[in-house]
Amino acid sequence: MDTLSISIPEILVAHGFISPADQEKIHAFSERSGMSYLKIALNFGYVSRKNYERALGNAGYQFADIRNEAFDQNVLDKAELKFVNDQLGLPLRIENNKVVTIMADPGNDLFLDFVRFTYDLEPEVIVASDLEITWLSHKLLGDKYVKAAVFDLVKRDPKSSASTTFTPTQLALIFVLWAIIAIGLFLNFKTVSIGINLIISSFFLVAIIFKLFLALVGSRFELHQAVTKSDLRNIVNDELPIYTILLPVYKEDKLIKKLIWNLQSLDYPREQLDIKLVIEEDDDKTLNAVKNLDFPSVFEVIVVPFHMPKTKPKACNYGLHFARGQYLTIYDAEDIPDTDQLKKVVALFKKLPENYICIQSALNYFNRNENFLTRMFTLEYSYWFDYMLPGLDTLDIPIPLGGTSNHFKMDALVELGAWDPFNVTEDADLGVRAYAKGYKVAIVNSSTYEEANNNYWNWIRQRSRWIKGYMQTYLVHMRNPVALIKRIGFKGFLGFNFFIGATSATFLIYPVLLIIFVCYLIFDFSTIRNLFPDWVLFMSIFNLMVGNILMIYINMMAVFKRRYFELILFAIANPIYWLLHSVAAYMGLYQLITNPFYWEKTNHGLSKVNNPTNVVK
Amino acid sequence: MKIAKSTYLFIFTLALAGWYLFIGIYLNQLGYYNQESLFYIEKTKIVFEGLGNRLKVMGLTAPLLPFYSTFIFSSINSYLAPVMASAIGTAGLFYLISRSFLIRVKDDFYLFMVAILFVLHPGIIYMACSGKAIYLVVTFLYLFFLNLLKFYRSNTTFHVSVASMCLVTLIFCDYRFIWLTLFFIPLVLSITLASLNLGEKESIFRLFMSFNSPSLRRKLINKTFAIYVILFILPIASLICYKLLNQTHASDLNYFIESPLATWNVLVDKLNYDTVATAVNYQLPELSILVSLRVIYFCPLILFGMYLLRESTYQVLTVITLFAFVEFLHIKYDKLFLTYQYYLIFLFVSLLCMVFKVHTIKNKLAVKLGLAFVIVLQLYTGYIFLTHSLITDERRFITTLNRLNPNTDQSESKEMAEYINKLPDDTHILMDDAVSYPIVAFTNNVKKLTLPYQLDTFLSAIETPYKYDDYILIATAKNPFTGYTQLNDKYIPEIRRLNSGVNYKRVYETDSWILYRVVSLQ
User: Fold this and answer.
1) Which residues of A475-485 are buried (b: 16+ CB within 10 A; e: fewer)?
2) Within this chain, do residues A388 and A485 fall inside the same structural domain, yes or no?
3) Domain-embedded: residue A210
4) Domain shared by A493 and A531, yes or no
5) Using the beta-carbon criterion (under 8 Å), do B157 and A557 form an inter-chain contact?
6) Cβ B161–A557 below 8 Å, yes or no?
7) Are both A469 and A340 inside the same structural domain?
8) Cβ of residue B221 closer than 8 Å to a chain A Cβ
9) B157–A541 CB contact, under 8 Å
10) What DSSP letter does each residue of B326-359 carry, written as one string?
11) Span A188-214, pLDDT tens digits
């Protein structure tokens, strides 16, 4: 195929899809960034893919289907994925003394020259959709990056990787403990049961008091503004650094339009944003949704080649190789961040000491009033992000990061080894790892609104993954408790145990204790009474009543702070909600043993509630 | 400079604690005890030294927190533990209040005035040196109102939730404060109304506007309800739980407020009322409207406090709520007299008003002169209220302090306890500590005693005393509490009738008590 007589930029201007002024901007940006003109035009909101295809069609070009094109590994070996990705072209094979090259912009001279100089042959151009080229180039050239995404942490810091779920020592310890308990129960059932009962009751008591204390510490600073309005006013747009946003998605085709809308609303210079939609190789649904957009897109697509485990952290690690930003954050497809969130983070990073490498925003839900589950979820998140995390932050205890809206300094993230692809709550793990290396995490006064799960089964699956991930994280960091104490201090160690360890444990124990209590109330079993001598009974009753009341009350406080007054009474339903947690905890425990790296995908886009963008004035 | 001041304050607090301890211990040496502190001493002895279901005593003795606070000091001296707790607690309260003045008002004159009050006010000395729970009631009420006022200013959940927790602790110091929740309904509505973003400034018009707009009405109701819940669900739920605990362990929801085994004031309040009602020297009783006037007479400073808060309706309402509360108590518990603590709380609320608002007054000299006069006046009214109190404990305190003569109120109990102490260690004495707790408090060895907390043993011992006990302590007909115990003068004839094979011999006798020895004839 011949090269074009007039260039793509001229065609786009001629069709009125791009103004001459924008054209100049794109050229300048292209020179600065090294990305091709077309890449910028298609990924920075200048022209839609439909219009581009239309313009190209008018010029006599049709997109070819390239997925099944033959390729020669020797030809591919001479091409570097990052360059290919930026230029939207890929040399495939040599045929008839020409290099068969697929290109999104057949007039991209830089890439054509690259082919000529590299292979010393003329290119034979096949015009294809940029997304198809991206898909094929990542599939064919992404192997080393995806391997790095999976194995980098295992190689660099195997002790911090969850690739091994249980170490031999941990297994031995667990079985020895079981054996001791079993022998004890056999020899003296009553005393050992009372002992276990006492340990569980004490554990609950301490955990409850600790959580109340954290909530009070967190709420003490609720008026504190980490970033004030005047801090924001002092920000100069031209001085803002490049900000990478990773959007790892899987089969989220329904949310793409909404996602673009939300991203466009961000108050941050467009050219300083480096937004990457990270999709899996087999996710044609999302790819097609992006392809079929009839308005300009504001993100670049990165395709993760197939490799196990198929997890979000692996996708993020892969996307990290292509990130250009000084800072990086992750959003889910359905997230609606406060429009000034990125600027607030930049301002806060400037104010904080160097060792602060991550800033967590609060998460909350836009569809809170949809059904019982979304209400309960909102109560839980309000308390978690508005009270518990600020409480941990104030007390300098490791913060388990939330799944999204955690903003990193790129260099520190890379130094830490990024996310653990074998851990299904990679965010929580990363928070602890950062503390272990002497880094700190801060909380910013900005929220991201997500879609609360409104389907029970979907909720249980999502929660089972979270709880499994907490168990993984706990097992990883407790491989050597003494070393952990040395790294994060005794306070951090206690916080880690009561926050990460206790969360899963309490949900596992909760239904057992509830069943015992119900049996005691209804059947008045004398055996149960024997296991609860008066003083243990007192403690258990105290836990049951005071513990439940306090946890309910903390939830009430959190929604009160958020001014979600209509939700306040729903906090009373928490004991039922905790039962759902217990179901998820047992499912998580089962999966931890049988399928530890399996990623229970949460379906998004189920909500029927539409929320406007959260513009912060 | 500030550090030096707070250090100075701390040293003064220690000196104040020493002053209270000196008075308290001296009064104790003179023989002054009150029913409340004796009750705590007795229960503490049972918990630490008794045999049987001690956890029930520990869990269901009311008021709970004052009882627990005496625990801390009982290892030093069980008889002085309540006094130590109240002395140190009151000094702590002084530190709390003066710190607030130091931080917010920054004028030493007010600190000086507070110091004078704490050193010389007879009511505060009574609070600190009597060993009663008043110091805890006042402290938690002060903290409750402090956080409430802070909430008005900051609108933060933290302060409203801390206020709520203070109310919980307050209720576990004096159950009657649960009724405060009732009077906060209009107040909470007023707070919400003030927090709505409306152009209109006048409260009544704001209310009118809010009720006539559906969205505002919804917002008003939602927020009012939310504030009410966040403020009161914790105390109400705690109380329900505590009542359930009483139900499961004592088969009575109100065991902690109605059983003389669980709380000291069931019988003492009745006795106080009966004594005064039947007395020849008839004193003017508390009348409904007069209670508020008596409060103002006792603490004129409260008027100044309300004047300081005049700019916001809901803050004035907050103080008025307390007036409504004491009026309500007077109506609800019509056969009881309002104890000193219900007057004393107004003194501390007025100090709180000053902490928040006194710096807004421009004519500082006039305020200071007025304040000095009122404080001197209050020292006098505080004294008058104690000397003319309808409550025996209060009158006895001030007369003992005035005359510095030995107090013989508990000599009878001590006498009986002394006799019991001389009995061999392996003897067992049946007694009912619902009425005889002062005697138990003065005994050296509670293991000798068969008391109601040892439920099964006690019930069996009542039926067949000769099988379980060697002695029985009986309340005589002269004993004012004789009607409230089974072990009274009717018990011995009855038990003799049931088993003629056992005889009971008087071995020791006082006006109110007789100790019988069980003599087996078979």
Assistant:
1) bbbbeeeeebe
2) yes
3) yes
4) yes
5) yes
6) yes
7) yes
8) no
9) no
10) HHHHHHHTTTSPPPHHHHHHHHHHHHHHHHHHGG
11) 888 888 888 888 888 888 888 888 888
Rounded Cα–Cα distance for residues B87 and B50 (Å):
27
Interface test with B, best of A212, A553, A564, A569 (most B CBs within 10 A): A553
Position A551 in a domain: yes
- Report whether B138 contacts B174 (CB < 8 A): no
Residue A527 and residue A603 in one domain: yes
Selected residues 512-571 of chain A with any CB under 8 Å from a CB in chain B: 534-535, 538, 541, 545-546, 549, 553, 556-558, 560-561, 565-566, 568-569
Which token pair is A387? 């009270």
Question: What is the ipTM metric for this complex?
Answer: 0.79
Among candidate residues A141, A158, A181, the one where a domain is terminated: A141
Residue B225 CB neighbour total at 10 angstroms: 17
Which residues in chain A are contacts of B245 at CB distance < 8 A? 541, 545
Task: Provide the residue range defining the domain that includes A131.
Answer: 8-141
Q: State whether B229 and A553 contact (CB < 8 Å).
A: no
**Do A193 and A123 belong together in one domain?**
no
Q: Give CA separation, B226 vs B222, B229, B232, B233, in Å.
A: 6, 5, 10, 10
* Bridge partners (DSSP) listed for residue B472: B430, B516
Indicate if A75 and A187 belong to the same structural domain: no
Q: In chain A, what is the straight-line distance between the N-terminal and C-terminal CA atoms, in Å?
A: 53
Token output for A278: 């990270």
Residues A105 and A195 in one domain: no
Asked if A139 and A449 count as a contact pair (C-beta separation under 8 A), the reply is no
Number of Cβ atoms within 10 Å of the Cβ of B212: 9
Do the chains contact at A216 and B241, CB–CB below 8 Å?
Answer: no
Q: Does residue A73 form part of some domain? A: yes
Q: What is this structure's pTM?
A: 0.81
Which of B406, B468, B413, B461 is closest to B436 using CA atoms? Answer: B413
Is some CB atom of chain A closer than 8 A to the CB atom of B226? yes
* DSSP H/E element including A448: strand A440-450
- Given a contact cutoff of 8 angstroms between Cβ atoms, the answer to whether A313 and A419 are in contact is yes
Residue B248 distance to chain A (closest CA, Å) = 11
| Cα A167 off chain centre by | 27
- Which of A386, A520, A556, A570 would best serve as a mutation to test chain B binding (most B beta carbons within 10 A)? A556
Instruction: Please tell me the total count of domains within chain A.
Output: 2
Instruction: Give CA B405 to chain center in angstroms.
Output: 26
> What is the full per-residue pLDDT of chain B (522 aa) written as tens digits?
456 788 889 999 999 999 999 999 999 999 999 999 999 999 999 998 888 878 788 888 989 999 999 988 998 999 999 999 999 999 999 999 999 998 888 888 999 999 999 999 999 999 999 999 999 999 999 999 999 999 888 888 888 889 999 999 999 999 999 998 888 888 888 888 877 777 776 777 777 777 788 888 888 888 888 888 998 998 998 898 889 888 878 888 999 988 999 998 888 877 777 766 665 455 555 555 678 888 999 999 999 999 998 887 788 888 999 999 999 988 888 777 888 999 999 999 999 999 998 888 888 889 899 999 999 999 999 999 999 888 888 888 999 988 888 888 889 999 999 999 999 988 999 999 999 999 999 999 999 999 999 888 899 999 888 888 999 999 999 888 888 888 988 999 988 888 777 888 999 999 999 999 998 765
Distance set, CA A615 to CA A90, A447, B112 (Å): 41, 11, 53
The answer to the question of residue A263 being in a domain is: no
Domain boundaries, chain B: 2-403, 411-520
CA distance B421 to chain A (A): 31
Question: Do A189 and A103 lie in a common domain?
Answer: no
Going across the sheet that includes A98-103, the strands are A89-95, A98-103, A122-127
Is the bond preceding A309 in cis, omega lying within 30 degrees of 0? yes
